[in-house]
Amino acid sequence: xxxxxxxxxxxxxxxxxxxxxxxxxxxxxxxxxxxxxxxxxxxxxxxxxxxxxxxxxxxxxxxxxxxxxxxxxxxxxxxxxxxxxxxxxxxxxxxxxxxxxxxxxxxxxxxxxxxxxxxxxxxxxxxxxxxxxxxxxxxxxxxxxxxxxxxxxxxxxxxxxxxxxxxxxxxxx
Length: 173
Hints:
Blueprint: H1 6-30, H2 40-58, H3 64-87, H4 89-95, E1 100-104, E2 107-108, H5 110-116, H6 120-129, E3 138-143, E4 149-153
Antiparallel strand pairs: 1-2, 1-3, 3-4
């Protein structure tokens, strides 16, 4: 229960170190986009990296080569999805969601809050986290594709061009 064999410990150290090295090399060569959490697909890839890394280290049934192969496959899938998203608007709409406007010019967008399953309290928390002391200081709150909130302040009557591709903004619906 506490100790099975020295072989298992040595295997974890060797395979863990080599897996880590291989993962770092693959992530550096595949670019920053591989671990960006910009949408749900990116989050799935990040979680899958963790799962593959744990399996490679802890399961004696998974060889180092299989673990590194899994890392390479995940990097390739992430690269492929990102490239296809750039080339095809249809594919991009299939794998990526649009950000949603939850609060705009002093009003909560209740129908979008319900659709996105977000409460007013969560929006207030995002506003507080952004350092805005009152709702009057906030021009918009957006639920981003990665699940984070963006709080837009300081527009002072100007067009909010950063809301261009946001669901619920003037031309985005």
